[in-house]
Amino acid sequence: MTGHAVAGAPMIEITGVTKSFGSFPVLKGITANVARGEVVCLIGPSGSGKSTILRCINGLESYDGGAITIDGERVERDKPSIVGIRTAMAMVFQRFNLFPHRTALENVVEGPIFVKKEPAAQAMARGRELLDRVGLGNKMDAYPGQLSGGQMQRVAIARALCMQPKAILFDEPTSALDPELVGEVLQVMKSLAEEGMTMLVVTHEMGFAREVADRVLFLDGGVIVEQGPSRELLSAPSHPRTQDFLRRVLRPI
C-alpha cells in the first residue's frame, strides 16, 4: 500500500449524494472521502454506480442531492467554478478519448494550451517529459491509430498529468485493453501512487487494488456496502455481498 494519506480535511468529500437517471436511482446516499495523497479503489459489479460517482465529482454529471466538495469548494455543474474543478480533477477514461487527428504530443498539450492558456513552448516541454515518463518518448509524433491500446491509455495518463491536477480519477482504465497490455498501464499508475498522487480508481484489477490502494470501497446497488484498508477488505471481507462478489471475481480458472 502507498501509505501517502495525509491527516486533515479530505481533498474530495462526498456527503449523502443521490443521483437518478429518470426514475432509476443510481446513487442512494453515497458518503465517502479521499485524503490528499491517498489512493482509493472503487470495486463492485457493473451498474453499481462506480463510474457515476467519478462523473459527478468532476461535473460531467449533475447529482440530485447531497454535496461533493473539492478542497472545500462545492462541485456544481452549472456554476463557472466547474471549469477550475475539472482542471483540478483530471479524468482518465476507459476508451482513451484521444483526438484521432492529433499526435500523441498534441493530445497531451491540448488542455494546458487551450484550457489553461499556457504558453505553447512551456506546455510542449512538459508534454515531452511526461510522454518520456510513461515510456512513449519515441511515439510523440504518432497518431492514436498507430498506437496499441496500452500506448493510447498511457498517452491519456500523460494528458491528465499535463494539466498538473490535484487528483486523477480513473474510470476502469484497463478494461478496454487486451490482457497483455494491462500491466504497462498499471505500472504507470503504480508509479504515480508511489509519488503521492491522489487517485480515485474504478477498477476490476483486484491485484492492483490490493497492492497499490490505501482503501477499497465496495459498491452494490448504488450504496457503499463495505469499505476498509485494501488488503484487509480484499482478504477478509465481512459483508456477505462483498464475500460473494470477491469469490466470483477471484475464482481460479
Describe the structure.
By secondary structure, the chain is α/β, with parallel strands linked by helices. The protein contains nine helices and ten strands. The protein has helices at residues 50-57, 82-88, 104-114, 120-133, 149-162, 179-194, 206-212, 230-235, 240-249; strands spanning 12-21, 24-34, 39-43, 65-70, 73-74, 89-92, 167-171, 198-202, 215-220, 223-229. The strands form two sheets. It has a six-stranded mixed β-sheet with strand order 6-7-8-3-9-10, sandwiched between helices. A four-stranded antiparallel β-sheet has the order 2-1-4-5, covered by helices on one side. β4 (65-70) and β5 form a beta hairpin. α4 (120-133) crosses α5 (149-162). The longest helix has 16 residues, at 179-194. The mean pLDDT is 93.
Q: Which structural class fits the helix and strand makeup?
A: alpha/beta
| DSSP, total strands | 10
**Biggest pleated-sheet summary:** 6 strands, mixed
Strand content: 15-25%
Mean pLDDT level: 93
Biggest sheet strand order reads 6-7-8-3-9-10
**Order of helix and strand elements from N to C terminus:** EEEHEEHEHHHEHEHEEHH
Global morphology: globular
Structure, briefly:
The chain is α/β, with parallel strands linked by helices and 253 residues long. It has nine helices and ten strands.
